[in-house]
Design a protein that fits this description.
The chain is built from no helices and six strands. By secondary structure, it is mostly beta strands. A six-stranded antiparallel β-barrel has the order 1-2-3-6-5-4. A hairpin with a 4-residue loop joins strand 4 and strand 5. It has a single domain, classed as predicted glycosyltransferase like domains (Thrombin, subunit H, Beta Barrel). The termini are far apart.
Length: 97
């Protein structure tokens, strides 16, 4: 089988802690904030590892810390896929504009 590239943007390694907020879990509406590790990033999206189950299609609000000016920038992303790995999940997200 021939390998075909499926990503629109090349990702770069991005080992940085980020926090995120999700609005609805298991049909219940509530805001939940979690801390996680980003593993890669591109202009199109982000890869993370988390213990939180994120449903495909759900929208997540991330907070990226900018250390130089001590602020965080909110960024919205949609869950494109989730893959279980041992005691956590690897998640691919697409940035929303």
């Amino acid at each position: 089988m021939k390998y075909e590239k499926t990503r629109a943007c090349d990702r770069k390694m991005f080992d940085q802690p980020v926090s995120f907020e999700i609005g609805a879990i298991e049909g219940k509406i509530k805001n939940i904030e979690k801390n996680t590790s980003a593993v890669d990033i591109s202009s199109c999206g982000l890869g993370i590892e988390t213990k939180c189950v994120l449903a495909e299609g759900s929208v997540v609000k991330f907070y990226f810390p900018i250390k130089e000016v001590e602020i965080t920038i909110p960024v919205y992303a949609q869950v494109m896929w989730t893959m279980p790995r041992n005691d956590h999940f690897r998640v691919g997200l697409r940035f929303l504009s």
